[in-house]
Design a protein that fits this description.
The protein is mainly alpha-helical. It has one domain (9-170). It is built from five helices and three strands. It has a three-stranded antiparallel β-sheet.
Length: 178
C-alpha cells in the first residue's frame, strides 16, 4: 500500500512528533492525572506562586481546595478563576519539548534549549493566570474572551516562536544529530 511512498524530513518530523505527542498524552491523561497527585500538586504550586506575586503587588488573594480536579484561585472580592489540568501549562510544555525533540538538531543544544523553553512557557502561564485573576477582579465580563482568545493566542504564539527560534537558529547540526 505504501511501497512507493517517499518520506522527506518533514514527514519524519510529523511522524516522530505525533508518536511522541501520543505517548505524552497517554502518560499524562491516564497515568499522571489518574494514578498520581502530581497534576494537582503542580496546580497548587502554580496557585502559591501566583498568590505570592499578587500579594507583592498589594492584592489579598484566596485559594480553594481541590474540587473535581480543579482549584479556584483569585483576588479577594472576586469569584476567582478555575485552574485545572488544561490550564496548568503542562500540555504546552509537552508540545514545545516534542517539537524540539522531533526536529533535527544537536543533542547538546536540545539539552539546554528544552528546559529554557519549558521555563519560558511556565512563566507565560503564570503571567496568564495572574492577568486572568486581575481581570476577574476588575470586570468578570472580560474573563471568558481573554481566557479563550487573548491568552490562548499568546501562549501558542510563544510556543511557536520558541520552536521557530529553534528551527532557524539552534537546530543547525554540526556532527551528531538527534
Amino acid at each position: 500500500m505504501f511501497a512507493g511512498l517517499k518520506l522527506n524530513r518533514f514527514h519524519y518530523f510529523v511522524i516522530k512528533a505525533s508518536l511522541l505527542y501520543g505517548l505524552c498524552y497517554v502518560s499524562y491523561e491516564f497515568i499522571l492525572k489518574k494514578v498520581t497527585r502530581g497534576d494537582q500538586l503542580f496546580i497548587r504550586e502554580i496557585i502559591n506562586l501566583c498568590s505570592w506575586i499578587l500579594q507583592q503587588m498589594g492584592y489579598k488573594t484566596f485559594a480553594s481546595k481541590e474540587v473535581n480536579d480543579f482549584q479556584v484561585f483569585g483576588i479577594d472580592g472576586s469569584s476567582g478563576v478555575w485552574i485545572g489540568g488544561p490550564c496548568n501549562g503542562i500540555t504546552l510544555m509537552f508540545l514545545f519539548a516534542i517539537f524540539v525533540i522531533a526536529y533535527p538538531g544537536n543533542l547538546k543544544n536540545k539539552l539546554w534549549y528544552i528546559p529554557l523553553g519549558i521555563f519560558i512557557v511556565h512563566f507565560i502561564n503564570i503571567v496568564r493566570i495572574i492577568a486572568l485573576a486581575i481581570i476577574a477582579y476588575y470586570d468578570y465580563t472580560y474573563l471568558d474572551f481573554n481566557h479563550t482568545y487573548t491568552f490562548t493566542f499568546i501562549a501558542y504564539s510563544v510556543v511557536f516562536g520558541l520552536w521557530m527560534l529553534w528551527v532557524n537558529k539552534f537546530s543547525k547540526t554540526k556532527g551528531i544529530e538527534n
